[in-house]
Each structure stands twice: as C-alpha cells, then as structure tokens.
Amino acid sequence: MLPSAQAPLYEIKANLFKGLAHPARIRILELLAAAPQETAAVSYLLAETGLEASHLSQHLATLRKHKVVTSVRTANAVTYRLAHPGIAQLLAIARTFLLDTLADSNEQLRLAQQLPAEHLAGGAAL
C-alpha cells in the first residue's frame, strides 16, 4: 500500500469509508453533528452510545486516525468535534440515500404482495 501522499484519491476515500464502517462510529458522528457547536464531551458520548469507555476510546481513536474528528483536552475533560463540516453533510446524504433506497424496496415489496398467488413459486398456489 502506498503512503497517503502517493495513494490515488479513490484509495484514500476507501480508507476513509473503512474508518467509518462501524455502527458505533456512525452513531458518534451523528451525535457530534447534532450537538451544539458540533462538539461533545466524552461523558456525553458515553451516556448516549451506551458503549464501555474502552470501546468508545477505540472508536474515537479510529475516527481521529482518519481525521474525521478532533479532540481538545481541558483539565480532566476531553471534548470531540467533527473535523470538517462536510462530515455532517456526508451523514445527511447517506441518510437521504438510504431512506430513498428503503422507500423503493418497500414499494417493490408492496407491489409483490399484491400479485395473485398463482404468480408466486412458479405457478404453484400457496
């Protein structure tokens, strides 16, 4: 694998999506996107995700590694924020895409359920 500076953009994008490829990380990003000033304390993220502290820490480390979030330590508290406003846009676009896809699937299911029984299972009535 090439260093990031030499890798083609599609490879860098794929690595970004690998970094996002966990439901807990998506939930963390959604919480940050919805938070005031898109910033949240670790204690808030722990309470909202229900993750163990060690698991949350691992997910946040992955998001930092991929430069999706940044952190600031103030005394004992650590707060996180989205590294770029485009991350919130990416989440919104993904939501729209998925809702549209689910709507299409639901419509196909509805139409399939309206078919007469003889059209199902190769003509055998169920």
Which topology of one domain does CATH recognise?
Answer: Arc Repressor Mutant, subunit A
Distance between the termini: 54 Å
Roughly how much helix do the residues carry, as a percent range? 55-70%
**Helical stretch tally:** 5
Using the alpha-carbon principal axes, give the shape. extended
Which structural class matches the secondary elements?
Answer: mainly alpha
The CATH homologous superfamily of one domain is termed Winged helix-like DNA-binding domain superfamily/Winged helix DNA-binding domain
Gyration radius over CA: 21 Å
What is the β-strand count? Answer: 3
Provide mean pLDDT, rounded: 88
Q: Based on the structure given, which CATH architecture of one domain is correct?
A: Orthogonal Bundle
Low-confidence stretches: none
The largest sheet is:
3 strands, antiparallel
CATH class of one domain: Mainly Alpha
Q: What is the strand content?
A: 5-15%
Strand order of the largest sheet: 1-3-2
SSE order: HHEHHEEH
